[in-house]
Amino acid sequence: MRLLLVLSAVAIAQDFSVPADEVSKLREAVKPLTAKAAAVSKHALAPDVAVYEKAVQNLVKYPDEFYTADYIKHANAALAEGLQRAEALSKGASPWTKQTGRVARAYRSRIDDSVQPYRLNIPKSYDGSKPVRLDVVLHGRNARLTEASFLALDKKPYEQDWMELEVMGRGNNAYRWAGETDVFEALAAVTSQYNIDKDRIVLRGFSMGGAGAWHIGLHHPSRWAGIEAGAGFTETMLYAKRMSPPAWERAAMRIYDAVDYAPNIVNTPTVGYGGEIDPQLKASVNIKEALEFEKVRPNAIFLVGPQTPHRWHPDSKKESEAFLTKNLPRRTPERFHFVTFTPRYGQVWNWKIAALQNMYGRAELSGTSDIVTTKNIAELELDAPRAVTIDGQSLKGAAFVKQMNRWEVRGGKPAVRKRAGLQGPIDDAFMDRFLVVADGEDASLTAFTANFEKYFRGAVRRTTSKALAKSDIAESHLVLFGTPSTNKTMERVIKNLPVRWTASEIEIKGQKFDALTHRLALIQPNPLNPSKYVVLNAGHSFGVDDLKGTNALLYPRWGDWAVIETVTGKVKAAGFFDEGWR
């Protein structure tokens, strides 16, 4: 199986300077493609054209991303392919959708309406008449990755008898935040357009992709028929050398530290791999040791490539493939065991952990499709109403809540509490559709926009309080920049948030700060639509240095709220709201 290029370096020095006239040529050359892409923009397949226009526009926007002369070739190839597809689509044709071999496709993301690319490797035998196996392949870190280079397809013939989906993951973020959403949006695009056997979807990755496979595999174990994770990392403090984080950072590391979710491996056949002389062998060793500590015996193998550095040993790869193939198709286990630390990751088979009693404490759900026991769980949901037994109680319904140590069917409107998809921290808002509302310019907004567009390959949607529509409030998390006196939407919501903010003072959790020299960042259910977030004065809580560094650094820095010195950017206080958002 072909894996994407893996580069372990944190950064790559610029060794090529693109001539200014080449950028100018591309700026002019892309205009016809822009016009043709706009002309077919209403077509369902429009993203397959628009992604080529985006690839060239981003090279024009970021000339530092011409890492070698080949990137000029990539840009010109993207222009040619985009124009060819636009012309075909204008005539009602889309020949690339019938191609086998290596094909580039795209979808439009619900997060920000941006077009995002993915690549398919399609066996020659595929004709859509019967469902096929699909391997979802997560690439390693590649500091020279751009849309144009990603769309430049490998010319080698594809010889497997299954289909592969290679996701870009919005760059180098270890498939976190919008990068995680990208995996599932790309998968949804493929399963809607090709005949995929949903019980033969395998998740694979190496290096950063291995970290992503451990993360997405163990957080969503019942989605996959098998998991193959090579190298990578599975915890934060040692790998990223953050040994003494503040309490609010340490709690939030529970979100992504895959080693904490190691017991979930019992739900899915899994391969862990590392080369004998590769430091990243530690990733699978961590998982194996956690399983031994908890006395968990999964259907898994842990392979070590003899005297092998940061790559697959061919014998190990053969053994891995044989194991995964033997365990197809996906099977619902007679009994399952599932662990989580946040309702963001609470789905296992037909059950969903909708809320915890204690956020970032270990929650457990064990049992069968009808009978379960729980630990640290406040609400459960099912995929359909049925008779079940929870902690020895017989109930019938689709949603259940624990009250005074007794389970009951949840009726009516759910209580306001931290629940799946609405549990924080601040960074969580950027995994789904969001809209910035700003009534003026703001330095923190400028920085967030620049970072999100370059490092998450996205588009920051923006409006003003005056132009904010009811549909915006209904469909999007609102991200408000400014103060209650400079942002009319913030003025509307602030009175219903657990904070006092006047012209002279900010007060939160009993602490007071000078409003002239500090800004407040926080996340809460939106008082204008409690099914969505409202965020004040924040994009991602990690910064550009973290985005340029190891992707293990992309964990939450502020929890649910933070007070920050305006001039220095220093965090003066930060933390979490309780399980009831108080």
Structure description:
The protein is of the alpha/beta class and 582 residues long. The protein has three domains: 93-326, Rossmann fold; 347-409, no CATH class; 426-575, no CATH class. Helices cover 26% and strands 27% of the residues. It has helices at 20-39, 47-61, 70-90, 147-151, 178-193, 208-219, 247-253, 282-293, 314-326, 443-455, 470-475, 488-493, 544-548, and strands at 101-108, 115-122, 132-138, 163-167, 196-206, 226-230, 270-275, 300-305, 336-340, 347-348, 351-356, 363-367, 371-375, 377-390, 393-403, 406-409, 434-438, 462-463, 477-481, 500-501, 505-508, 511-514, 518-526, 529-536, 561-565, 571-575. α4 (147-151) links the parallel β3 and β4. α1 runs parallel beside α3 and α2 packs antiparallel against α3 (70-90). The longest helix has 21 residues, at 70-90. Mean pLDDT is 96; it is low at 1-12.
Please give the largest β-sheet: 8 strands, mixed
Main-sheet strand order equals: 1-2-4-3-5-6-7-8
Q: Predict the CATH topology of the largest domain.
A: Rossmann fold
In the CATH hierarchy, the architecture of the largest domain is: 3-Layer(aba) Sandwich
